[in-house]
Write a structure and sequence with these properties.
It catalyses: 9-ribosyl-trans-zeatin 5'-phosphate + H2O = trans-zeatin + D-ribose 5-phosphate; N(6)-(dimethylallyl)adenosine 5'-phosphate + H2O = N(6)-dimethylallyladenine + D-ribose 5-phosphate. Belongs to the LOG family. It is an enzyme of class 3 (hydrolase). The structure is a single chain. α1 packs parallel to α4 and α2 packs parallel to α3. Strands 4-3-2-1-5-6-7 form a 7-stranded parallel sheet, sandwiched between helices. It is built from 9 helices and 7 strands. It is of the alpha/beta class. The radius of gyration is 16 Å and the shape is globular. The N and C termini lie far apart (45 Å). The longest helix is centred in the last third of the chain and has 16 residues. α2 links the parallel β1 and β2. Bound molecules: N-(3-methylbut-2-en-1-yl)adenosine 5'-(dihydrogen phosphate) (ZJS). The site of N-(3-methylbut-2-en-1-yl)adenosine 5'-(dihydrogen phosphate) has 19 residues, from α5.
């Protein structure tokens, strides 16, 4: 069965991966934009710290993150999705897996992730980010750092969650703390390293920059 074989192939490949951070973000981020540059930097710094990156393997922010990681010599994973129009892996993916089903692919983003970062994006990015929050909140996923990159971009969502969801009693105040917000790529790397000290030790042992 196709669905089952997608799970088997995905688990088989990603279980071998080593520590990696899933990074989501818009397919439409332009290469000349600050958000693209931030994505490259996120990929590069995570790779230098010893983390692989996992993206949707497509254009825009996904390409930026794969690019930063690959150019720094890191593991650069793309979990591609078959879409009604032509879609290929961006050229910076060095380990690609293709999926027909979005829901199988979403399991793969989180099952082996040591952390999650959301760059600015649209509904796809929101969907992937909030799946991570839901799974951590309900204890279905080991608590990993979850970071919104772009304080101004995400401010509306964060403020509304605090002012409306929390005050209506639908979200516990402490659950808001599951999600960090920053404009600082180094803070992302520090959060990931603090949660995974063994990665820091290994990358130091391998002559890593940290
Ligand atoms: C130009 C265009 C729309 C290409 C679409 N090609 C795509 N290739 C791979 N993953 C994708 C694509 N579009 C959306 N996604 C998924 O949804 C997220 C981005 O959705 P959005 O652009 O924020 O809502 C990504 O993290 C990715 O996992």
């Amino acid at each position: 069965m196709r669905i089952q074989s997608e799970f088997v192939e995905g688990f088989g490949t990603l279980a071998e991966l080593g520590p990696a951070v899933s990074v989501f973000g818009s397919a439409r981020t332009r290469p000349d934009s600050p958000h693209y540059r931030a994505g490259v930097e996120v990929g590069r710094r995570l790779a230098e710290a010893g983390f692989g990156v996992i993206t949707g393997g497509g254009p825009g922010a996904m390409e930026a993150v794969n690019r930063g990681a690959a150019e720094a010599g890191g593991v650069s994973v793309g979990l591609g999705i078959e879409l009604p129009y032509e879609s290929n892996f961006n050229e910076y993916v060095n380990l690609g897996i293709y999926f027909r089903y979005f829901f199988v692919r979403k399991v793969m983003f989180l099952k082996y992730a040591s952390g999650v970062v959301a760059l600015p994006g649209g509904v796809g990015t929101m969907d992937e980010l909030f799946e991570a929050v839901t799974l951590v909140q309900t204890g279905k996923l080991t608590a990993v750092p979850i970071v919104m990159y772009g304080v101004d971009f995400w401010a509306g969502v964060r403020n509304w969650m605090g002012a409306t969801m929390v005050s209506e009693g639908y979200v516990r105040p402490e659950d808001l703390e599951l999600v960090h917000a920053t404009d600082d790529v180094e803070e992302i790397v520090e959060l990931m390293c603090a949660a995974h000290p063994s990665v820091v030790a290994a990358s130091r042992g391998a002559g890593g920059s940290r």
